[in-house]
Design goal:
With 865 residues, the protein is of the alpha+beta class. Helix content is 52%, strand content 17%. The chain has four domains: 13-62 and 285-450, no CATH class; 63-283, no CATH class; 481-544 and 726-865, no CATH class; 573-702, no CATH class. The longest helix has 39 residues, at 27-65.
């Protein structure tokens, strides 16, 4: 296919290359390329990072779990299950964990401390590495190396540093566990399958499984968690490498076969469940998922704005080439050849911009790796092909789907336009064309979002906002035209000229208002996210959040314990009674785990609840349904999450067994509990000042003052209590927030720049029209100063209207994202539209000055010619 003239024949490919080289000097084409590059870079920067994180977690999940699969039970794992694993050629190790008291020798003080005692079989761990160290007199722990397989030698124990501090011991000292005395050989620096939950808060003590019977701690009523760790077959070569090497495909099949068989047994065995690699580190995955939501939201906004920018710039590009195409038609160039040429040109531009965006995205994703890889704690493998395919797909789709349709109209420009400039003007695109491109982009962006709710709110919110912007824009133009008619002959000259500029072509004005509003909407939403959404996230764990929890305080210790806290300078602390109870009946029917299909519901029914009572709900537990009536008899307030999981509702009657004491009550209210708040929370509370029949202990939470040495004093004066130090966890959470927020702000740059491009592109589309109109006005005697005033007033008015509308839409979309996706309280100011109008006016004026600079100063003769 070729373009033929009187002397030369040029192929469509050659013509496309020549046009591309020429058009790269045009501002509209440079804006188009920049918009596509930014969209691809934002999406792929997040995509590369997320893909590497996922691959790293999948690769190293076995090390974090301590095995490839784990059978967890509250009774010894059946021998048949263990034999099934061995029949599959798998390796098996077994552990048992339970809470017990550890005691220092009498000659070293005889202090006691609740510990998490763990016994391990000779081949533990199967995956991952257990690291040991020593602790100096100053409390500093130094790593000495990885532990040998099988746990401590006979008669010796490994402990965590916290236990040595609490009991005033050191490595080499003796430690009593039940009726057996052990020698502390080393401190535990890291443990692959540490786990979470109440027992995990206590200091770890690890001994060999063969030494456990000598302690005489295992009794018929003991609450012990038994774990059978299963891993793929050992490999040849260095045996130590089997602890960290990934499984071969045949090993995966063997493990999966075992898991399938074990789950059949677990379904028939109460208190038994199977853990696989997907549950290796759920708390870390939750943090990364939250970070991913923030990053993907910003990337979505960048892609949306890029689509708008490409559509606006490509229309301006086509508008500038109407005369050229009319001349080509006169020379006999077929429409089909022109269409092929422009299609090839935009495909090349889209591919070039996509490759540039991929390179920029790869470079910027390295910043995310530097900022956030500490959350994973594993080395990250190389990314796969999916982010590359996504970047290329989005870049080419943006260029062809949103940039090419208006350009293809150039093939229909009539040859007569060389004589009559009013012919062959661009038409609005059909709904089918925009719908096809929009649907394809929507599908890709939903793949990027990976969250239907967030993608629906963000994309649907923008689509709805554009429709509202258009309707309000037409209404504003109608009102302006009415005011202009009413003030005809009485208004200042700048008012008359400005209103005529805006009302003469209402469609063009509305397009500009919508473009400005969409660009400002993204900017407003980002500002709200930064100030309110991120602030809400930080408020979930504020700097003054409690870092110490103390449980098992006896009723006769309340006054002295509280006095001890006040003497240490602690004025504010959470203080609640607590009782362990098991739910045994709902509405008169016994509760059984097998009656609930969900695994979480089964676990909740099998475990004991923590109940409390207070005349008023905690200030951080808002009532969302029913009423919390002080001193109401036989009433319970239930956390809304557990109510949903167990199918409970207002009015249901609950029966609890509290160490032999039966307590019944009906649900009179539901509370919203933020379990990440680092405060004392309960599933069930009674609205009473006192419940003398309940066998209660007390729990408190407080922020330990700097330099205060209270932990050892509390353990020494109240040996029955357990002090849980969560300062490291709190510091880690706050550090994670800082890293995530830094990464999000870094990605904001893409969207901010893209938003400014949309602002300038929206004004650029009217550049030539304004030049012609102002040239006519100048030829009729209008001064440059007057036209500068008209331009300034027009831009400020458009920006103020767009800013007020976009700020209002940002409030609505931000509320949806905050409450429905990120689940934070939304506290955005209602006066935000006023600030939005001011910001919009200033940004529109600045962008307009840059986009329209030189238009007023252009020679009149040149413009009119």
């Amino acid at each position: 296919m070729s373009v033929t003239s009187s002397s030369t024949t040029v192929s469509a490919w050659q013509w496309a290359l020549l046009q591309t080289r020429r058009d790269l000097r045009a501002s509209s084409m440079r804006f188009l390329i920049l918009a596509v590059v930014l969209a691809v870079a934002a999406l792929t920067a997040v995509g590369f990072f997320a893909d590497r994180i996922e691959r790293g977690l999948s690769r190293d999940a076995a090390q974090l779990l301590g095995a490839d699969a784990v059978v967890v039970a509250d009774q010894p794992v059946p021998d048949a299950v263990v034999q099934t694993a061995r029949d599959q050629g798998l390796r098996v190790a077994q552990t048992s964990v339970f809470a017990s008291m550890a005691r220092a020798p009498d000659e070293l003080g005889g202090d006691t401390r609740l510990v998490a005692l763990k016994s391990v079989s000779p081949n533990y761990p199967l995956r991952g590495q257990l690291t040991l160290g020593t602790m100096g007199a100053d409390g500093v722990v130094k790593t000495t190396g990885k532990a040998p397989t099988g746990g401590p030698p006979a008669g010796q124990a490994w402990t965590e540093p916290g236990l040595l501090l609490a009991l005033n011991l050191k490595v080499g000292d003796a430690l009593w566990l039940g009726e057996a005395k052990f020698r502390i050989q080393a401190v535990i620096v890291s443990e692959p399958d540490r786990g979470a939950g109440f027992v995990a808060f206590s200091p770890r003590v690890m001994i060999r499984a063969a030494d456990l019977p000598s302690t005489q701690l295992v009794q018929p009523a003991s609450r012990i968690t038994y774990r059978a760790l299963v891993a793929g077959p050992a490999r040849t070569g260095d045996a130590d490498q089997t602890r960290i090497a990934p499984m071969a495909n045949d090993g995966k099949q063997q493990v999966q076969a075992f898991v399938d068989a074990a789950r059949k047994v677990a379904d028939k065995t109460r208190g038994m469940k199977i853990e696989t690699l997907d549950a290796g580190r759920p708390e870390m995955r939750a943090t990364l998922d939250r970070a991913g939501l923030f990053l993907r939201l910003v990337a979505l906004l960048a892609a949306l704005l890029s689509a708008v920018a490409v559509a606006l710039v490509s229309r301006d590009f086509a508008q500038r080439r109407l005369d050229d195409c009319a001349l080509l038609r006169v020379l006999g160039v077929p429409q089909r050849v022109m269409a092929w040429s422009y299609g090839i040109q935009f495909a090349l531009v889209g591919l070039m911009a996509s490759l540039g965006g991929l390179l920029l995205g790869w470079l910027f994703h390295l910043v995310f790796v530097a900022l956030l890889s500490d959350l994973v704690g594993v080395s990250l493998p190389m990314a796969g092909w999916q982010p590359v395919a996504l970047g290329l797909g989005v870049g080419v789709l943006l260029t062809l789907g949103f940039g090419l349709p208006p350009v293809l109209q150039l093939t229909q420009v009539p040859p007569l336009r060389v004589l009559r400039r009013d012919l062959g003007q661009l038409r609005p695109m059909s709904a089918a064309v925009w719908g096809l491109g929009g649907a394809a982009l929507l599908a890709l962006l939903m793949m990027v979002a990976r969250d239907v709710k967030m993608g629906g709110i963000a994309l649907g919110g923008f689509a709805g906002a554009v429709l509202v912007f258009a309707l309000l824009g037409f209404a504003a133009v109608a009102i302006l035209r009415f005011l202009a008619d009413q003030l005809a002959g009485r208004a200042p000259t700048w008012w008359t000229l400005g209103t005529r500029q805006l009302t003469a072509q209402p469609v063009q004005t509305v397009v500009q208002v919508c473009a400005l509003s969409v660009g400002l909407l993204a900017l407003m939403l980002l500002i709200l996210i930064r100030t309110d959404l991120v602030a809400s996230w930080r408020n979930a764990t504020p700097p003054d959040a409690p870092d110490r929890f103390v449980i098992n305080i006896q009723p006769d210790q309340v006054e002295s314990f509280q006095a001890t806290l006040r003497d240490a300078g602690i004025k504010q602390f959470d203080w609640y009674p607590m009782v362990r109870a098991r739910l045994i009946g709902v509405n008169g029917k016994p509760v059984r785990a097998e009656d609930y299909p969900e695994e979480r519901a089964q676990r909740l029914v099998d475990r004991e609840f923590n109940l409390s009572y207070a005349q008023q709900t905690p200030s951080y537990n808002p009532v969302v349904a029913g009423r919390y009536v002080q001193n109401e008899d036989d009433a319970f307030s239930v956390e809304q999450g557990i109510a949903k999981t167990l199918g409970l509702k207002l009015g249901d009657k609950l029966r609890f067994d509290m160490a032999g004491t039966i307590q019944e009550g009906r649900i009179t209210s539901l509370r919203k509990v933020d379990w990440s708040s680092m405060r004392v929370n309960f599933f069930v509370m009674a609205p009473k000042a006192d419940m003398p029949q309940w066998p209660v202990t007390y729990i408190t939470a407080f922020k330990l003052p700097k330099q205060a040495k209270l932990d050892r004093l509390l353990v020494q004066n109240y040996p029955n209590v357990t002090v849980i130090d969560v300062s490291a966890t709190l510091a880690q959470i706050q550090g994670v927030l800082g890293q995530v927020i830094t990464a999000v702000e870094f990605l904001f740059v893409f969207t901010l720049v893209t938003g400014l491009i949309v602002l300038m592109a929206g004004l650029m589309t009217s550049r030539e029209r304004r030049a012609r109109e102002w040239a006519v006005l100048r030829s009729m005697g209008a001064t440059r100063q007057l036209l500068f005033t008209v331009q300034r007033i027009e831009l400020l008015g458009l920006g103020a209207l767009a800013g007020a509308m976009s700020a209002s839409a940002a409030l609505a979309i931000g509320w949806g994202l905050a409450t429905k996706v990120f689940e934070f309280e939304w506290n955005a100011p209602l006066w935000w539209p006023l600030l939005g109008a001011l910001i919009g006016a200033l940004l529109a004026w600045a962008a307009g000055w840059w986009s329209l600079r030189g238009v007023v100063s252009r020679p009149v003769a040149l413009t009119l010619r």
